[in-house]
């Protein structure tokens, strides 16, 4: 892959904070700029067993929102059916997570792709085993990191700790995106103001709470501000 491909890793303050929503919105935003995009979900647990093998809902959404279609095995090379921590799912099957499979997927992305969005699983320090974390792979591969902050009571601590952990990993935190987890959030503006000061990276968007999947798919990208960042 050439250096012109912008490789973005989407992580979150926790699980279920909207990483997939944001990942798809970033893909849509880049597509609207006329950029060629792909989305990867390298490690996924909570997959459905289908006639074509294990399939993860998040990975399928990334496929749908990308401008360039990759084989599913490239999008999601490491998949487990049980919805638990991936390294525990691997242990229960007598396996270990092999990050060489992730390297192979990334290397199969065509050179002409402008933007590669890689969605993590869980939070920043996803265990690969009892001693190693996926965050080390992200830092070693010099990916740009965008932190998704699920806005709710308690998110300030989670966001600040996550940002500190990303920076401590020597990873490149390029920005954060606020994602509202409910329709009515007390002191929303005050929390955003606090995080804008506390986090060293810029706020790249504020995602409202969507009442339907259709609205989410159609409008999410409208709430991002990535034009300067995505300038290639």
Automatic annotation (TrEMBL):
CDD domains: DTBS. Homodimer. Catalyzes a mechanistically unusual reaction, the ATP-dependent insertion of CO2 between the N7 and N8 nitrogen atoms of 7,8-diaminopelargonic acid (DAPA, also called 7,8-diammoniononanoate) to form a ureido ring. Mg(2+) binds at residues 20, 58, 119. Its cofactor is Mg(2+). This is ATP-dependent dethiobiotin synthetase BioD. Gene3D superfamilies: P-loop containing nucleotide triphosphate hydrolases. GO terms for molecular function: ATP binding; dethiobiotin synthase activity; magnesium ion binding; protein homodimerization activity. GO terms for biological process: biotin biosynthetic process. It is found in: Cytoplasm. The active site is at residue 41. Pfam families: AAA_26 (PF13500). InterPro entries: DTB_synth_BioD, P-loop_NTPase. Keywords: ATP-binding, Biotin biosynthesis, Cytoplasm, Ligase, Magnesium, Metal-binding, Nucleotide-binding. HAMAP family: BioD. GO terms for cellular component: cytosol. ATP binds at residues 16-21, 58, 119-122, 179-180, 215. It comes from Moritella yayanosii. Pathway: Cofactor biosynthesis; biotin biosynthesis; biotin from 7,8-diaminononanoate: step 1/2. Its EC number is 6.3.3.3. Belongs to the dethiobiotin synthetase family. Coiled coil: none annotated. It catalyses: (7R,8S)-7,8-diammoniononanoate + CO2 + ATP = (4R,5S)-dethiobiotin + ADP + phosphate + 3 H(+).
């Amino acid at each position: 892959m050439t250096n012109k491909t912008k490789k973005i890793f989407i992580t979150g303050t926790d699980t279920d904070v909207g990483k997939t929503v944001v990942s798809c919105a970033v893909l849509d935003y880049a597509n609207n700029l006329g950029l060629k995009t792909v989305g990867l979900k390298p490690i996924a647990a909570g997959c459905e067993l289908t006639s074509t093998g294990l399939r993860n809902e998040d990975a399928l959404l990334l496929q749908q929102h990308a401008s360039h279609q990759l084989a599913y095995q490239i999008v999601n090379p490491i998949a487990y059916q049980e919805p638990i921590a991936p390294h525990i799912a691997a242990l229960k099957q007598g396996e270990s997570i092999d990050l060489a499979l992730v390297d192979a997927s990334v290397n199969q992305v065509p050179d002409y792709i402008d933007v590669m969005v890689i969605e993590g699983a869980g939070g920043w320090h996803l265990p690969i085993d009892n001693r190693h974390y996926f965050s080390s792979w992200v830092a070693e591969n010099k990916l740009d990191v965008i932190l998704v902050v699920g806005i709710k009571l308690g998110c300030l601590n989670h966001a600040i700790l996550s940002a500190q952990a990303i920076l401590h990993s020597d990873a490149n935190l390029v920005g954060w995106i606020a994602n509202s987890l409910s329709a009515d959030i007390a002191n929303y503006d005050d929390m955003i103001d606090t995080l804008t000061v506390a986090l060293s990276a810029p706020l790249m968007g504020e995602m409202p709470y969507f009442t339907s999947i259709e609205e989410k798919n159609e409008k999410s990208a409208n709430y991002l501000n990535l034009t300067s960042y995505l300038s290639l």
